Request: fold
Amino acid sequence: MSSLRRSLNWLFVVLVLVGTFLLVSGLYLQWQQIKQAHQLRQHSQVLLISNAMHSLLVSQETLLALPGRQALFHWRLDQLEAIDAILQQILDINANAAAYALLDVEGNPIAWRWRPLAADLDGLTPTLIEYSGCDGAVGSDGAMAIGRPLRIDALNRWLLPVCQALEDETQQIGGFIAAALLLEGPNSFIENQAILGPTNIVQVIREAGLQPILWGTSLDIPPDYLAEPIPLSFYEQAIESAERLSGQSIDQLRASGQPARFQFINSAGQQLGTAIHDSRYRFWVLSQTSRSELIEQLKGFGWTYGASYLAVLLAFLVMIVAINRAERRRRQELVYQAGHDMLTGLPNRQSMRGCSKFCVNVIPITG
Reply:
């Protein structure tokens, strides 16, 4: 084997080793970029939804507090007609509300008003009060409490009960005002803003009882999804992972109001997610995506990188074969030129000498 062929073979081996290293390194770096880009999108996603949800609840709290105090004042004066007028007025102002109810300090209904929704819903007032979360409405910051979602079968939709504690002139809790908000999942805002891929699920979770409030996904969700709390094991795994990855405790995560990454494994495989907590209204926004979806994205790059790598190897192999053939033809030409006359093409003396030796060795000499 000539030195050129040996050099080419060694060069091919080096090319395979270096190419394999570059392919694996490139795929690893691409995987890190895919995960980082997805994490950034999830961070933006949960921040956007958390801020939008917070702003919406702030506006609803404003619509509850001042009219509620006025209604409470009229109740002290036994002016029930004025209370009904106030409740109807805020219903007319707030298109996101389906009902309002004024409660005394014990949580008993004083007056209520439902928006006409193609069904008589007055009988649902006790359920609205029960679901409104008025037992947790008195917080350290006086924030409005979020209740459990309430399904209206007659309308085939969900309502979100909320409750605001009302202070009297002595700064003591004198009563409550509850409302049923027309917020339901899936919600168009959540659907438009939240979907990062076919396996992405974004949820707004009420911290008390781990009750889902809103969700958005392209997956099939059971119709009674909002009626049940999320599995405690899922919440514990997500929080434990977020604490481990962020190096912060759950209380620090709640207080920071910043997105935190988490990972866990369920029946659908490993999930990669981001969570953010709203400390005023005590809800979580969770976004999770199956790791397999990111792997599918990596496969696209893998096919591209692999095809490029194989194309380079194939081109190098074709070059080696071409060089070997050219070298073989050149060697044959040199052998031919060494045994033939360049002008006539006839065998020369060297060729005849070789033939004579062959004939002497092969043909026996007889006397």
User: Anything to note?
Assistant: The mean pLDDT is 80.
